[in-house]
Design a protein that fits this description.
Elements lengths: L3 E2 L19 H11 L5 H9 L3 E2 L4 E2 L3 E2 L2 E2 L2 E3 L5 E3 L3 H8 L5 E6 L3 E6 L8 E7 L7 E7 L2 H6 L1 E3 L14
Antiparallel strand pairs: 1-12, 2-5, 3-4, 3-12, 6-7, 8-9, 9-10, 10-11
């Protein structure tokens, strides 16, 4: 069976049970201001199509199944949701500073990595190692978000998923 990589169309699963309200320019500006970063233009373009939710191209490197991607939302009560909750999770779990979480499952995360500066982030995979100073392992998946997108593909239930003891 031929692997189908993301090529700029049909990223989001239609009729997804979850996504945030449609994205507005005001929310993008507020998110970048709060996070103190410049979000990748291609990420913003995806969120303008659908503001987060389940994705059709969920597999990366035959090891990671990122079945959803976070959007941006500020609910009616002022709570920061989606990528705006990154700071909360960083503090709670001891994740590295200067990242923006795109996907996660408590012990595994994919994030935009701004540790080199507030623009042009790489994309990293983080996994829980244990406790102590280096409790999170990290591996660069792509030098930028566009490259990361180009490596996502549609998988099947038979795809070999992530092995916690051997990330790559």
């Amino acid at each position: 069976m031929k692997t189908s990589y993301y090529s700029g169309r049909d990223f989001w699963r239609k009729n997804s049970a979850w996504s945030y309200k449609p994205l507005e320019e005001k929310i993008i500006r507020e998110a970048e201001s709060q996070l103190k970063v410049q979000l990748p233009p291609s990420y913003i373009d995806l969120l303008k199509e659908q503001n987060g939710g389940e994705v059709r191209y969920s597999y990366f490197n035959n090891r990671i199944n990122m079945y959803f991607m976070e959007g941006i939302d500020i609910d009616s009560e002022g709570r920061r949701l989606g990528i705006l909750s990154s700071k909360y999770w960083i503090e709670l779990l001891g994740l590295p500073q200067h990242i923006v979480l795109l996907w996660g499952e408590f012990h595994h995360y994919i994030a935009l990595d701004y540790r080199s500066g507030p623009t042009r982030p790489s994309v990293v995979y983080l996994w829980k190692r244990g406790t102590g100073n280096r409790q999170w392992g990290d591996l660069q998946l792509a030098p930028d978000f566009d490259t990361f997108l180009s490596k996502l593909y549609q998988g099947t239930k038979d795809s070999k998923l992530f092995n916690i003891f051997s990330p790559f």
